[in-house]
Amino acid sequence: DMAEPIQQLTRNNNPQERQSIPFTLIQRKEKLGDLLYEKRQYGKAKWACITMKEKQYEQSICLGFMKLMRYICEQNSSGLYLGITVPIVTIVHTDEAHSAMTPAVTVAYYLPEVLQDEPPHPLDSDIIIEEWPATIVYSR
């Protein structure tokens, strides 16, 4: 099921072709010279998002990522490979009291700059295009 997206990604797996999302560094945490995480602020932008609710958190991330890869690798209204932006963001949702995680996990792909004004529509109805306000992201 993932053979075509993986082949497309492999053909286009040139690090120079990966677009880093523009951000402002807020904080950088290191331990013994190794980067633990960065706290970043991303500007207002459009993202392709999918929310999965599998029994296991990791399964939701994997399935959501696979669906996004299909969108990136031609299963969109343009029929074209859209290009990779990094990082792919994972959002863990919590209950109303913010005391426990819910089964819902959102996986999001920042649309490349050239697609921000008119992003291709996903062929998968589970994927939605959202415009996010400026957003804080923790990146490893």
Estimated radius of gyration: 16 Å
Number of helices: 2
N-to-C SSE series? Answer: HEEEEHEEEEE
Q: How does the major sheet shape up?
A: 4 strands, antiparallel
The whole-number mean of residue pLDDT values reads 89
Q: Spans of 5+ residues with little confidence (pLDDT < 50)?
A: none
Strand content: 35-45%
What is the terminal-to-terminal distance? 29 Å
Helix content: 10-25%
The CATH topology of the domain at 45-131 turns out to be Multidrug-efflux Transporter 1 Regulator Bmrr, Chain A
Count all strands and give the number. 9
Return the CATH architecture of the domain at 45-131. Alpha-Beta Barrel
By secondary-structure content and strand pairing, the structural class works out as alpha+beta
Outline: globular
User: What strand line-up does the widest sheet have?
Assistant: 6-7-4-8
